[in-house]
Amino acid sequence: MKNGELLAAAEEKFDLFVTTDRNLRYQQNLADRRLAILVLPTTSWPILQRQVSRIADAIASVRPGIYVELS
């Protein structure tokens, strides 16, 4: 999928899109998206494991149409 097709498909079935693509907000027009987007700081599982509570808090507080980037 390309050019926003993945986001459009995800919007049909999900409320939250989790990614590590920090360039997403520059590559896609995120205006009017119903999907909440959470950008994780890395793909490294050992690092993400240490941040589980922070990630869970972000997931619990994010709302449709909101873009959150964890650092």
Poorly predicted runs of 5 or more residues: none
Number of strands: 3
Order of helices and strands: HEHEHHE
Radius of gyration: 12 Å
Main sheet? 3 strands, parallel
Instruction: Determine the structural class based on helices, strands and strand pairing.
Output: alpha/beta
Mean pLDDT: 92
Distance from first to last alpha carbon: 27 Å
**Strand composition percent:** 15-25%
What is the global morphology? globular
- Give me the number of helical elements: 4
Order of strands, widest sheet: 1-2-3
Share of helical residues: 25-40%
The number of domains is: 1
Please summarize what this structure is.
This protein is of the alpha/beta class and 71 residues long. The protein has one domain. The protein has helices at residues 5-13, 24-27, 45-49, 52-61, and strands at residues 16-19, 36-39, 67-69.
List keywords for this structure.
three-stranded parallel β-sheet; 71 residues; 39% helix
Describe this structure in words.
This protein is α/β, with parallel strands linked by helices and 71 residues long. It has one domain. The protein contains 4 helices and 3 strands, in the order H-E-H-E-H-H-E. A 3-stranded parallel beta sheet has the order 1-2-3, covered by helices on one side. The radius of gyration is 12 Å and the shape is globular. 4% of the residues are buried.
